[in-house]
């Protein structure tokens, strides 16, 4: 559904949380509900009080619908020209500008054109949709001002499992192909391995293969963040896994719904990715985003003793 002009986050809004994560200083979002329908997504919990859900008559935690604003590029163009203090813009932070519904309005490309038409802006693209390749011709014209990232949440071998909870995102193999093509075309890339769900993609072999892949695609940085346990998202993820017959994976997700299990998972994930990057001499590229409030004292102490690549953040 579209809600023209009823809500937006355009470059006039500093994105303090993503600035803290060293991802971007500004945000562009094309809506409040993404059509990819990733069950583990914490956006519903973050935006649950947003007026767009009341206007649409929908729960922020329900699936099967999207909320976007097709007029976003108009406001982005206005603000990109108006703002003097320019910097790095993330497209997007809470939704996906290349989700199926956003593609219907060509929002990703139009927002890129609006931002890049003004000097001084750079853009970090984050998407789970391989449709972004259709806009590589535009990105090539501004290659020094655009960073391309496709979120990889599993290896190809486990993509059929993660697809249960990412029903409308591009298959993993297509996302990998898009990132590989970006690198082959000389575009700037970064790695986004998030979330690597427990029991699905957090084991050493999976992490090793994903790290190897994004490094092979020229990633200048590699971001990871333990899955956010806020709200009902992980419960929905667990239920979907059980319904699909993936009991072991559902059990692993159930464990991280609680503080002790989440803490152990976060520590283990950090240890695994640090080892993978150290072996390749690429540890300087690690950006491990961590909210320490949910860590146990023992796990927090271990992480403080192994801080390489860790970005400790504020409240989740």
Would you kindly provide a written description of the structure presented here, covering whatever features stand out?
The chain has about 325 residues and is α/β, with parallel strands linked by helices. It folds into 2 domains: about 1-125, no CATH class; about 150-165 and about 170-315. The chain is about 40% helix and about 15% strand. The chain is built from 14 helices and 10 strands. The protein has helices at about 15-20, 45, 50-55, 70-80, 100-105, 105-115, 135-140, 160, 170-185, 205-215, 235-245, 245-255, 260-280, 295-305, and strands spanning about 25-30, 30-35, 65-70, 90, 120-125, 145-150, 190-195, 220-225, 285-290, 310. The chain has an 8-stranded parallel beta sheet. Strands 2-3 form a two-stranded antiparallel sheet. Strand 5, helix 7 (about 135-140) and strand 6 form a beta-alpha-beta unit. Helix 4 (about 70-80) runs parallel beside helix 6 and helix 10 packs across helix 13. The longest helix is centred in the C-terminal third of the chain and has 21 residues, at about 260-280. The radius of gyration is 19 Å and the shape is globular.
């Amino acid at each position: 559904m579209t809600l023209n002009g009823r809500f937006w986050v355009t470059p006039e809004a500093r994105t303090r949380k993503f600035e803290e994560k060293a991802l971007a200083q500004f945000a562009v979002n094309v809506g409040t509900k993404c059509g990819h329908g990733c069950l583990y997504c914490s956006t519903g919990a973050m935006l649950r009080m947003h007026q767009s859900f009341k206007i649409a008559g929908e729960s922020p935690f329900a699936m099967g619908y999207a909320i976007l604003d097709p007029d976003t590029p108009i406001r982005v163009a206005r603000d990109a020209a108006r703002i003097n203090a320019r910097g790095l813009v993330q497209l997007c932070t809470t939704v996906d500008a290349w989700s199926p519904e956003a593609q219907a309005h060509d929002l990703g490309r139009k927002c890129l054109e609006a931002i890049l038409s003004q000097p001084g802006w750079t853009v970090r693209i984050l998407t789970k949709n391989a449709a972004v390749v259709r806009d590589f011709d535009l990105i090539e014209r501004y290659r020094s001002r655009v960073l391309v990232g496709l979120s990889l949440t599993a290896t190809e071998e486990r993509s059929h499992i993660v697809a249960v909870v990412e029903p409308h995102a591009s298959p993993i193999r297509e996302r990998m192909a898009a990132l590989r093509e970006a690198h082959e075309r000389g575009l700037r890339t970064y790695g986004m391995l998030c979330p690597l769900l427990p029991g699905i993609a957090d084991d050493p072999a999976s992490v090793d293969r994903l790290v190897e892949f994004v490094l092979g695609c020229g990633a200048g940085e590699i971001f990871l963040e333990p899955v956010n346990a806020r709200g009902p998202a992980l419960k929905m993820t667990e239920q979907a896994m059980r319904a699909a017959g993936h009991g072991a994976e559902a059990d692993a997700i159930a464990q991280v719904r609680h503080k002790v299990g989440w803490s152990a998972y976060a520590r283990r994930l950090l240890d695994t990715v640090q080892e993978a990057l150290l072996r390749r001499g690429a540890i300087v590229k690690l950006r491990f985003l961590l909210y320490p409030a949910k860590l146990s004292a023992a796990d927090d102490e271990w992480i403080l003793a192994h801080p390489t690549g860790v970005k400790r953040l504020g409240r989740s």
